[in-house]
Amino acid sequence: MTVALMWEARAVAGRGAELLEWARARTGELAYEPLRYELLRAPQDRVLVITWWEAAYGDALPELPEPEPELITRAVHRWRFEVAVPDSGPDIGRI
């Protein structure tokens, strides 16, 4: 089974690039490498990291830590998902 971990944080105003770099560095320091990962950014200095793992839903997996409190405006949001449709793409579900 494939599991996706999502990590989202909002930086203090004007520090989004710093938070993105912090997340990139921490992703490279995970205890072991995910199948893949993506780093995304959004308005309001938000950063999202998605990591994919070959694991069962409840398995213990390496996660990014909380950044230093002075870098973020609130606690990190975290979600865990399992892949519902393997190899889904743009044509899946079209009639």
Question: What report would you give on this structure?
Answer:
The protein has a single domain (2-57, 66-82), classed as Alpha-Beta Plaits. It contains 1 helix and 4 strands, in the order βαβββ. It has one helix at 16-28, and strands spanning 2-10, 36-42, 46-54, 77-82. It has a 4-stranded antiparallel beta sheet with strand order 2-3-1-4, covered by helices on one side. The longest helix has 13 residues, at 16-28. The protein starts with a strand and ends in a 13-residue tail after the last strand.
Termini Cα gap: 27 Å
What's the architecture, going by CATH? 2-Layer Sandwich
Largest sheet: 4 strands, antiparallel
Instruction: Report the uncertain regions.
Output: none
The CATH topology comes to: Alpha-Beta Plaits
Instruction: Characterize the quaternary organization of these chains.
Output: single chain
- The radius of gyration is 15 Å
Main β-sheet, spatial strand arrangement? 2-3-1-4
Shape: globular
Instruction: State the helicity in percent bands.
Output: 10-25%
Q: Helix count? A: 1
What is the number of strand segments? 4
Number of domains: 1
Strand content: 25-35%
What is the name of the CATH class? Alpha Beta
User: Which class do the helix and strand fractions yield?
Assistant: alpha+beta
Give the mean pLDDT.
93
N to C succession of SSEs? EHEEE
Concise description?
This protein is an alpha+beta fold and 95 residues long.
Please write out the topology.
Blueprint (H helix, E strand, L loop, with lengths): L1 E9 L5 H13 L7 E7 L3 E9 L22 E6 L13
Antiparallel strand pairs: 1-3, 1-4, 2-3
